[in-house]
Write a structure and sequence with these properties.
Distance between the termini: 35 Å
Number of helices: 2
Number of strands: 10
Radius of gyration: 15 Å
Helix content: under 10%
Shape: globular
Strand content: 25-35%
Order of helices and strands: EEEEEEEEEEHH
Strand order of the largest sheet: 1-2-10-7
Bound molecules: zinc ion
Oligomer: single chain
Largest sheet: 4 strands, mixed
């Protein structure tokens, strides 16, 4: 693992996940999203998508195993968010609120509705919509799936 304060280990959500090994404060950087910059979306690796669209014409290919953020799972109640640092050209998983040691680090993969149809979510949160989809699209997906949520976001 390349980032201090975090480790990769088995996750109840899916495969391996990324976890804190110490407490972090809200807004603190957890791990960088490392990868080569590309002008277009990189191909998927093993059928999984590890690509971050920073803006049109700038993608970060995060598929390399030494990208610590690669191991972070999606959750409908994410503990982190990706924040782009323009000065250093690096995206950082950043704590959305205070996190204790041993907390799984998750973020919103931001998938489209079309992408979400083949991507079940098993995050286990009360707000889970059952698919990996960007937060703003969740109310529409809930209506589509006729799966009542516990929140009115
Ligand atoms: Zn979920």
């Amino acid at each position: 693992m390349t980032a201090p304060g975090v480790e990769r280990r088995a996750s109840a959500i899916a495969g391996d996940g990324l976890f804190t090994t110490r407490a972090f404060r809200a807004g603190e950087r957890l791990a960088p999203y490392l990868g080569a910059a590309r002008p277009e979306r990189p191909p998927s690796a093993d059928g999984r998508v590890f690509a971050l669209e920073i803006r049109p014409g700038l993608w970060i290919d995060g598929a390399a195993e030494d990208n610590p953020a690669r191991w972070a799972n999606h959750s409908c109640e994410a503990t982190a968010e990706l924040v782009w640092d323009e000065a250093y050209g690096t995206a950082w998983l950043t704590a959305r609120h205070d996190l204790p040691a041993g907390q799984e680090i998750t973020f919103d993969y931001g998938f489209s509705l079309a992408e979400s149809l083949s991507q079940p979510c098993r995050c286990g949160s009360p707000a889970c919509v059952g698919r990996i989809v960007a937060a703003p699209l969740r109310p529409a997906l809930r209506r589509h799936l006729r799966r009542p949520g516990t929140r009115s976001d």
